[in-house]
Amino acid sequence: MEIPAMENPSLIALLMQMKDEMSDNSKEMLNKMDDKAKKLENLKSTVEGKRKNVEDVEIMKHHYYGVEKEMNSNASRVAVVNQLARQLLHVEHPDWELAKEKPEFATSISPKIEELADQFDVLEQTTKEKGERLFDANREVLIHQTCDDIDSWMNELEKQIESDDTGSDLASLNILLQKRQMIETQMAVKARQVNELEKQTKHLETAAPDKDINKIKKLIDEAPPHEDATEFSRLMNELHKAWQELKEALDHRRANLLRNERAQQYLFDANEAESWMSEQEVYMRVEDRDKDEASFMKMKKHESLEAAVEAYADTIRGLGETVKALSAEGHRASYAGDRAKEITNREQEVVSAWARLQMVCEPRKGKLAICSSYSTW
């Protein structure tokens, strides 16, 4: 930005006025930053047990943003003052002859401009440092608050997971499986929060509580542990332990629900199989005495039914394998009592129904063959 030449007294007066204003503003802003820092320290020390109030920290952050905005708005004014000074002291500037004739202007302006630049640099660095401390305090608040929230959520979820209800039929079981899926989705979201919380904790454990602006790099490299590092580690260890226990409980409940799903599916399939075999048995026990073309058609139908019965053998074998698998998984031990007896009884009933069906199938075929031979005479 080019600054037009001015009358000598006006330019120098403007320059000195702007310098004084900026110097006063710089000191005022530094005082504000110190005041905010003191309030932050009081906040940290007065809240019992390090449980900071997130609203108080948010208010401090709002004040900080106001100071930062004010500082940024004054940055352009500092640039104008510096440019005016450079132009005044430059040999090509119209007012340079005045500065040459009265060197006290140059000797007074240069140190003051340097002082102003130094003050503004200190202000910028101080603002940055105070901001970092404020954000670290905000992280502490969020860590405590998030740990409490996740802990409460896990306690409530644990009550649901510890339920012994695994459904009395496929319909109720499907509802429980849907709830379990919703829980796993929630846990996936919480897992991301836990991971982010761990990152924030690690940052605070290595953050220096106070930083000397002239030794920032050294303090970062050799920063002592955060004063609450032990507390953060304890919180994260407790959270990880509770989280692992919750995952194990959820895995155990998932296994129980899936095992019960297979058991309920077996009972459903066993009922369907027994119903089908009973219908075939009733049909095959019907006495057929026809000695005409109808007997021939019945023979053909019987052959179709016989083929269906033979094909159904795979279904019966599959049901038997399901019972064996449930027994191997400890199903009967997990569901001792009525459920174990129910599965055992259904298994025996299915086997008996299959045996009866096979017993009536072959004799009926022989009878139909005899009737069919009569019809050919």
TrEMBL record:
Domain of life (superkingdom): Eukaryota
A matching Pfam family: Spectrin
Coiled-coil blocks: 23-60, 180-207
UniProtKB keywords: Coiled coil, Repeat
Species whose genome carries this gene: Dendroctonus ponderosae (Mountain pine beetle)
Record-given protein name: Uncharacterized protein
Cellular component terms per the entry's GO annotation: cytoplasm
Keyword presence, Coiled coil: yes
